[in-house]
Amino acid sequence: MTSPARLLAPIALAIAASALVACSGGTPAPDPQPSIPPGITAPPPTAPATPTPTVESSLPAEIAGVDTSDWQQIPVPSGAATFRIPQGWTVSEAAGGLDIVREDGERQLGYAEDVTAGDGSCVDGAGAPVAWRTAVLDRQDVALEGTTGTAFGAAALQLGDQWIVSVGLRPAADAQTPRCPIENIITTPNGAISFGSEVNVTGTGPGAPWAVASVAAAQEYLGTPEYATIRAILMSLELLGPPAP
Q1: Using CA atoms, how far apart are residues 243 and 115, in angstroms rounded to an integer?
Q2: Rounded CA gap, 193 and 168, in Å?
Q3: Which helix (H) or strand (E) covers residue 235, if one does?
Q4: How far from each other are the two terminal CA atoms of the chain, in whole angstroms?
């Protein structure tokens, strides 16, 4: 015999189930969304990085006997020229252009536009006129678009008791028979450009690393790998067009 309680149980379960179905028929509650705390604004979307322009070169990999195939191609800030430097070397912005910096952080060369020559006098680092003499160390012709008669020149300059090595691009005649003042300046369709150890050679300021003890020390420097690197950097210059306005 079945008890009344057992007969009522299925009815109670059916009523409960219908009640659950009725409750579930309403509009579902929205899913909670993350919110930004008051006083804090969402960050703007990140802009895509601007790709670095590729600098083309028409020069061969070997320059003045140095393999530059793995060197960096450096455009100048104005876009008027480009040159190569070894891996590990860097450039930094300087007045009118760039300084070329060796791996140990010492400035070696400079590129500058719109440069001016000195007043034609030979002075020492203090600005006092001194006796001078020069010795040719090296000279090689350089072909630059839009120019003629340009050469790489290396010379030893004596100002008083001090000897200084000068390296840079210069008019070919001046590189052949350097006189004081030595000015590493060439005239190009882009104006007067200096690419060398100093614009006007005095052996002070940015040119201080180029001071040597004697002309013999200057001649010995020509046999070092660093000198070959320096010469290749200077002879890698290419003119691309007028400077940007």
Answers
A1: 14
A2: 11
A3: helix 225-235
A4: 108
- Residue given tokens 């020509």 in the structure block: 222
Secondary element (H or E) of residue 120: none
pLDDT digits (tens, 9 = 90+) for 163-219: 999 999 999 999 999 999 999 999 998 899 999 999 999 888 888 999 999 999 999
How deeply is 71 buried, as exposed, middle or buried, from its count of CB atoms within 10 A (0-12, 13-18, 19+)? Answer: buried
- The letter for the amino acid at 155 is A
CB of 232 closer than 8 Å to CB of 224: no
- Which three-class secondary structure state does DSSP give residue 19? helix
Report the Cα 47 to chain-centroid distance in Å: 24
- Among 239, 242, 244, 243, smallest CA distance to 81 is for 239
Q: Please state whether beta strands 162-171 and 90-94 pair in parallel, antiparallel, or not at all (unpaired).
A: unpaired
The CA distance from 120 to 93, in Å, is 28
CB burial class (10 A; 0-12, 13-18, 19+) of residue 159? buried
